[in-house]
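Predicting holo structure, zinc ion bound.
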Amino acid sequence: MRQARGGRSRVTGNIQPHTFRSRDLVGGHIVIDLVNTVTARDAEPIDWLDGYPRVLEWAALTGHFTPDDLTDLRRLAETEPGRAKLALDRTRELREALHDLITALIHEGAPDPAGAVEQFEDHWKHAVASARLTVRGTGPQLQVSVGTSGAEYLNHELALQAFDLLRALPLERTRVCPGLRCGWVFIDSSRGGRRRWCDMATCGNSAKGRTHYQRKRAGGMAQARP
Ligand SMILES: [Zn+2]
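Done. Tokens:
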């Protein structure tokens, strides 16, 4: 993959098409679901965002954006493919900065891994520059739109959402899935707070299967020993 602006992008080369399904949205927050559009971060990362239309497909699945806005973005991308390509690069750059920030917060508490803070700051400032300030009963809010942000609308909205998330990230409940070839981040909102896997149906089950197999194998070998 082309080096993103700022000269830093840890996800390299391996971009694969992927049809997003609801089981890909297990992060507990749209920003974390964006981070999880790369899989196998613990091994050889695979980037599932293989084009701007794929980002729109993912965005539709999140339910966070209106169909009208997504249709407008699809048309924009058709008439201005260069801008759509730049927006995709920016989505990947924002995603990687957020991944580095969130995982560093989980593991260390107060990070600036490889300039991730500056990179996120850049994205946030661009978002704020395109935003309108509204004041409602709930207080002041920054709002972006396709009209003011163009092809960057998703990036701007995600950057604003990320700012809110990082201010209130429940660190004791934010985890990285230990599943093989996973590395997804999730917020554990279960009652007991003991969720270990991104998804019990995928990583949880395959880990259980492996443990069972290893036990069986270990048992077999023990029997074979003299
Ligand atoms: Zn997992």
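The chain has a mean pLDDT of 88.
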